[in-house]
Automatic annotation (TrEMBL):
Residues 37-107 form the Carboxymuconolactone decarboxylase-like domain. NCBIfam families: ahpD_dom. It comes from Streptomyces osmaniensis. SUPFAM superfamilies: AhpD-like (SSF69118). This is Carboxymuconolactone decarboxylase family protein.
């Protein structure tokens, strides 16, 4: 759908269906949201959680989740500089070694179909140096959850840009 505004052509993005209003989707999302809440309450640092969700969402092209998690991270005190550099984290000096390990695992875990053999032993060993077993379980599970959210939103073409921090609870 296209609209003309101020003499310029703008794209108005519409989802393929109203996923969030569908009764079955509501049941599915309640389970995914429950898992997400468990992970949010885990010992994995919130900063790491948000960075991982942002990076996976960027890789998957999920504007809805990228919008949500950058806004949530900013609301929690994350700096604009770090948020702008998540996509180029390897070249940025602003991330800790633990954050870098988590971002590497996030990239390899999200691009699992592109990587022969999935996550490398080197990436896993690096993450294991920075996180205990519970945190590693949380990190793996978080990647599964955010990739599920991303796929739902990308397939449905869920529009991005209107999210307000705390909107979903």
């Amino acid at each position: 759908m296209y609209a003309i505004q101020n003499g310029k052509e703008n794209t108005t993005v519409e989802p393929r269906l109203d996923y969030f209003a569908n009764p079955l989707a509501g049941k599915v999302l309640r389970h995914i949201n429950s898992a997400s809440k468990l992970l949010a309450d885990s010992s994995l640092p919130t900063t790491i959680q948000e960075l991982v969700k942002i990076r996976a969402s960027q890789i998957n092209g999920c504007g809805f989740c990228t919008d949500m998690h950058t806004k949530d991270a900013a609301e929690a005190g994350e700096t604009a500089q770090r948020l702008h550099l998540v996509a180029a984290w390897r070249e940025a000096k602003v991330f800790t070694e633990a954050e870098r390990a988590a971002l590497e695992l996030a990239e390899q875990g999200t691009r699992i179909a592109d990587a022969a053999g999935g996550v490398t032993d080197e990436a896993w060993a690096d993450a294991a140096k920075h996180f205990d077993e519970e945190q590693l379980v949380a990190l793996i599970s978080l990647l599964g959850v955010i990739n599920a959210y991303n796929r739902i939103n990308v397939i449905n073409q869920q529009p991005a840009g209107d999210y307000q921090p705390g909107q979903f609870g």
